[in-house]
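Input record (Table S2, row 309):
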Amino acid sequence: MIHIENLVKRYGDLIALDHLNLDIKEGEIFGLLGPNGSGKSTAIGCMLALLKYDKGTIQIFGKNMTPDSYDIKKEIGVVMQNVAVFHQMSVRENVDYFCGLYVTDKQKRKKLVDEALDFVGLTEYAKKRPGKLSGGLLRRLNIACGIAHKPKLIIMDEPTVAVDPQSRNRILEGILELNRQGSTIIYTSHYMEEVEQICSRIAIIDHGHVLATGTCEELKNMIKTGETITIEAINLNPETLSEIRTMPNVFELTYEEQVLKIRLSGGKHNLISLLKYLGDHNISFGRVFSELPTLNDVFLEITGKELRD
Ligand SMILES: Nc1ncnc2c1ncn2[C@@H]1O[C@H](COP(=O)(O)OP(=O)(O)OP(=O)(O)O)[C@@H](O)[C@H]1O
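Output record (adenosine-5'-triphosphate complex):
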């Protein structure tokens, strides 16, 4: 559905996209995951031909995307990071206006607008002005405006930023439903939990470059970390730390602010062995956590820094 090859975009001296390559298939919810400033919004702007780029090609539905590719654009729905609605119009009039850019038949549009309002749970607010809506409801209105014309491809740029948990869940559920109804979705976020929850495939990007692509499982299998064990323990001495470091499967150990963090490369019964070691050496400890790898671990291993930074 989308093929992006060697995309380069500069803002003056800054290289925002550095030979970005992406292939997105029909039916996917494709996550673009990267920290702030990694180039997600710029990539979207280029895909939509809203930004000029310096090098590379972008094909959507098998055709080159250009600013006047109206046949392609009418099949795309966009939900941008910043809420863009008209405050002097009602909720319903806003959705009707944006839907009207694609659908001229009034009867057909009425049905689509009703469906979109119902879909985002704003039917009861239809006559209200956007200024009367909470932040979460405003985001839902932004989504209704972008999807009412039932596009084949929906591009969402961080639609849940600064949204309360209830609206966030509603938005994520809505995205899954849109996908079930047949839309392919591109979803950008720096929240790894969201991406993990809804995306069928993910590209991790940093500095305008794709670092890894795959399903969540595939990405986690690319890294050495199989398990991370965290133990609260006070005043561990260097001898203890070096003994733990030599235990089977341990490949990294840190001890900061009385918290011991051990990364292990797979293996079984790691936690039991560690607790036995602490017990045998009369070392008292507080809370203990064992975690399977997250997308943050994938990012950390590839870049050496946290996704949350
Ligand atoms: N109009 C602009 N002029 C100059 N630099 C820009 C412009 N827009 C973005 N940048 C820079 O390009 C880089 C990529 O930014 P971009 O907004 O695409 O990243 P992002 O991953 O979408 O981040 P965020 O989640 O914060 O929106 C950043 O270094 C950013 O400061």
